[in-house]
Amino acid sequence: MPLFDYECRDCGEIFEVVVVGRDRLPNCPGCGGKKTRKLPSAVAVHVKSDTATPRIEKRVKDYLKDGKFKEATRFADKAAAMTKNDKAKRIAAKLHEKTGD
């Protein structure tokens, strides 16, 4: 259910109200005034998680399945340099450990 901020035009109090359906403007909880207005609210933004890492992992695994260890290491190094994700760097480091490069 959405939560909205309102302001009382009589006393100036700002308050929050959970809105169910298309309710009328609520009365002020402070003074009981009926002259309230809905305030603009901040937009909630969800930052999606990194989508590159699963693709990097898949491509490295595909190289390894095909026996292309140098290509897998080279690709992981490039991916680690191009992304800000620590997981890509850990993948590259692990490949270097296993291959001895």
Spell out the key features of this protein:
alpha+beta, 101 residues, 3-stranded antiparallel sheet
| Beta-strand fraction estimate | 5-15%
Structural class: alpha+beta
Give a short account of the largest sheet.
Answer: 3 strands, antiparallel
Physical arrangement of strands within the biggest beta sheet? 2-1-3
Number of domains: 2
Shape: rod-shaped
Give a count of the beta strands, DSSP E runs of length 2 or more: 3
| Helical residues, percent | 40-55%
| Mean pLDDT level | 83
**Alpha carbon gyration radius:** 27 Å
Question: Cα distance, first to last residue?
Answer: 55 Å
Order of helical and strand elements = EEEHHH
Describe the structure.
The protein is of the alpha+beta class and 101 residues long. It folds into two domains: 3-38; 52-99, no CATH class. 42% of the residues lie in helices and 14% in strands. The protein is built from three helices and three strands; from the N terminus they run E-E-E-H-H-H. It has helices at residues 52-65, 69-82, 86-99; strands at residues 3-8, 14-18, 36-38. The protein has a three-stranded antiparallel sheet, with no helix packed on it. Strand 1 and strand 2 (14-18) form a beta hairpin. The longest helix has 14 residues, at 52-65. It starts with a strand and ends with a helix.
